[in-house]
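Supplementary Methods S3. Complex input for the 1-hydroxynaphthalene-2-carboxylic acid-bound model.
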Amino acid sequence: MSTAESSELREFDVELEAANLRGQWIYDDMLESVVGGPKPAGVPFLWRWHDVYAKLLKSCDVMPESLTARRNLSFINPDARGTTHTINMGMQMLKPGEIAYAHRHTMAALRFAIQGGPGLVTVVDGEPCQMDTYDLVLTPRWTWHDHENATSENVVWLDVLDIGLVLGLNVPFYEPYGEMRQPQREDPGEHLADRGGMLRPAWEQVKAANFPYRYPWRDVERQLQRMAGLAGSPYDGVVLRYANPVTGGSTMPTLDCWVQLLRPGQQTEAHRHTSSAVYFVVRGEGTTVVDGVELDWGPHDSFVVPNWSTHHFVNRSAENALLFSVNDIPTLKALDLYYEEPELSLGTQPFPPVPANLRAR
Ligand code: 1HN
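Predicted complex, serialized as structure tokens:
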């Protein structure tokens, strides 16, 4: 293109802008820059448990009452709006006897207890969900939730929400309940078990998308141990999805929770995908290498793997390492935007053969 043409074109660009119009050619630079995929949204980053814990303790002094807000510290990526562009992870502390009052919002959220106990309860749409250490409790989109610490110690849990996604789509709604606590069901446990178990009321509508649920850690750990000897995924090791108990699909419509076991010394293969993920180290020590950045982790550290960044895991400890993580794969899949390199690895391995086939081999 000649200089004369381009200066004429530049004038036209200004004219178009004044008319609230834009020529497609303006997008050329953007399109050229994404040949081969996007620049990752955010950078690889790690938050040390001891640093965050100290700040949580301090927040108890600076904010002596948790009544007006949540005493939650969100992990902010130096180069993204939240922990990733779609997900916010943070930690929340409640002192003995405290209640974080009831409210609801269109952000889907989940709680993973770090220092919990039988007296730590999140009530979700009237259902009291106990949060023992490492239990997962869902507070899906637009469900009422309040947290109560009836233990004699400070409690800490992970909060993970799809804030970036909900704000990006401009659909945040929020409503305080108006009282500290919401009324509770008289049949704790039964209501959920009767609707998420093997036998369900035939006359009721199915409530799948925002079904409150608790995944007790003892069940998770038992299954992880049982499957610890399997080959698993070359990229993530023995990795289990927290399935929605009603649909068998993702944990919530936008977010999926995973727990993965890496054997001592195990190093996974590197890959990248269009989804982003936040991680919490339950047990073990190791390194996650993300686009050349080494994130060295130990128990209760948290870290982030931004989307489209190449990463692999190394367990440097002599024990099985266990990582809890939350990703936005369901969002990407729902929009047909989930890509993975060098290959699609999710849900691709054949179902284990029946024993007769094994004999015939
Ligand atoms: C929220 O409502 C909670 O309910 C925790 O415990 C963290 C971070 C941002 C916005 C809302 C909670 C949150 C949050």
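The longest strand covers residues 117-124. The domain at 216-347 is CATH 2.60.120.10 (Jelly Rolls).
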